[in-house]
Design goal:
Layout: E1 4-10, H1 17-31, H2 35-56, E2 64-70, E3 74-80, H3 95-104, H4 114-121, E4 124-129, E5 135-142
Antiparallel strand pairs: 1-2, 2-3, 3-5, 4-5
Helix pairs in contact: 1-2, 2-4
Length: 151
């Protein structure tokens, strides 16, 4: 399978995350990911998109962008928010802010677990500022094919 790139743009609102979650679930399943791993992928996507909607996008109209790259062994998802909508006003997460989020994460709180979940479940998790003044979050999932044993 050759590498395929899919690009989506959705309004920055919770309502639009579920259809993308369903699409990614169907895609991961068709690529051969086991059911449990499909659920992990969907949960990570939900957390990353929710963070982009709630913390990273200026308004509904600006939206968030997704780039999904697939090949025979990998599903890669890049979620890009635009921050404040003003490239000169940086709204991305600094190392200090990430450390603060990690330090304040508590089992009794509903907030602050999205980054932890994404880091824990994805094979690769990267966050970096983008030129729009927002944050790019890249997660990668590798499809582990069973080894064929020759007898």
């Amino acid at each position: 399978m050759a590498k395929t790139d899919i690009q989506l743009k959705i309004p920055s609102a919770d309502f639009y995350i579920e259809p993308v979650r369903a699409f990614i679930g169907n895609l991961a399943q068709s690529l051969g990911f086991p059911r449990k791993r499909v659920a992990d992928i969907q949960l990570v996507l939900d957390e990353v998109c929710s963070n982009a909607v709630h913390h990273g996008s200026a308004n509904d109209a600006v939206g968030i962008k997704l780039r999904i790259a697939v090949d025979a062994h990998t599903l890669e998802i890049l979620v890009r928010d635009t921050g404040s909508g003003n490239a000169r006003q940086k709204n991305w997460l600094t190392r200090e802010r990430l450390l603060e989020i990690e330090t304040n994460r508590s089992p009794s709180s509903e907030r602050g677990h999205g980054i932890f979940i994404a880091k824990s479940l994805a094979d690769t998790h990267e966050m970096q500022p983008n030129e729009a003044g927002g944050t790019d979050v890249r997660v990668v999932f590798h499809l582990l094919k069973p080894n064929t044993v020759e007898v």
